[in-house]
Amino acid sequence: MKVTVKVPATSANLGPGFDCLGIALPLYNEITVEETVMPGSGIEINIIDESDSYDILSIPKDENNLAYKAIELLYNFIGQTASDLKITIKTNIPVARGLGSSASVIVGGLVAANELLSKPADKALLLSIASEVEGHPDNVAPALFGGFCLSSLEEDGSVSYSKIEWPKNWKLTVLIPDYELDTKIARSVLPESIPIKDCAYNIRKSAMIIDAIYRKDSEMMKKAMKDKLHQPYREKLINGFKELNEFLANKDDILGCVISGAGPTILIVSENNGFEKVQNEIKQIFEDLNVSCDIRTYEAENEGTLVI
Ligand code: HSE
């Protein structure tokens, strides 16, 4: 028996929500998990780059593969060992770009294996296992549930989460550069401690962003999509981020310009034709900086992981 699932890409943080906010995007990886015919043959992991444009060589094909690690935890939970499995990952989500590619394989492996085992785990347990493997829940929650999610990894390992309807006319544009940034490196540049005034800044912006999304209040959103916890430390790793923010300040219908996850992709939230009005100038900014990037505009993805 084999099960295939499709899992959306995600953009985490959304400005102030470091490690707790994220939104799903309609770009998918497909993960298939099947029992191998010959018992004792061990695990087999195949990676297929559907877009033929990403560096998939960095994805482990052994026990260190994140999908396998997550599946192993699920099997352990039911008192079994995960051996003799074949995992196939078809990637469409760019790797190491801040678009949740690792979250998608973790969630995909888990959901497919859970189906294969006749669903011993509920969604809450899947989310908790996925967050344990990923280290934080902000990508895995929207990858699993779709839409905009807030999530909190609790001290006991459980994850509290909530999905809030994302305003339909708020578009999500991602600027995906042609270079990778390992999340471990992007996290290593963050300081051990943050000045209390910067913490207070992010607390109020996080409260505001939830209210802005809930009430679909664009003016509140413009004030809320700001951050002093991670962006000031990471912006030196993200070509064009500073220049883009200076250019977009106070532009009509642009609600925010933030680092997507740990970067290097940049996320712009806009309404009406806000992005279209400035896209040529944005392309010019990147050309001047000699940065080539793929620009795509999406609506929020609302289904999350689906068995196909
Ligand atoms: N919240 C995470 C970070 C997302 O910013 O490091 C990347 O996995």
Characteristic key phrases:
single chain; 308 residues; alpha+beta; Ribosomal Protein S5, domain 2; Alpha-Beta Plaits; 2 domains; 7-stranded mixed sheet; 4-stranded antiparallel sheet; 10 helices; globular; binds L-homoserine
Low-confidence stretches: none
Instruction: Quickly give the CATH architecture of the largest domain.
Output: 2-Layer Sandwich
Q: Determine the structural class based on helices, strands and strand pairing.
A: alpha+beta
Q: Tell me roughly what share of residues is in helical segments.
A: 25-40%
Order of helices and strands: EEEHEHHHEEEHHHHHEEHEE
Number of domains: 2
Individual helix count: 10
Total number of beta strands: 11
The ligands bound in this entry are: L-homoserine
The CATH class designation of the largest domain is Alpha Beta
CATH domain topology of the largest domain: Ribosomal Protein S5, domain 2
Sheet with most strands: 7 strands, mixed
Structural shape: globular
- Radius of gyration, taken over Cα atoms and rounded to an integer in Å: 19 Å
* End-to-end gap: 14 Å
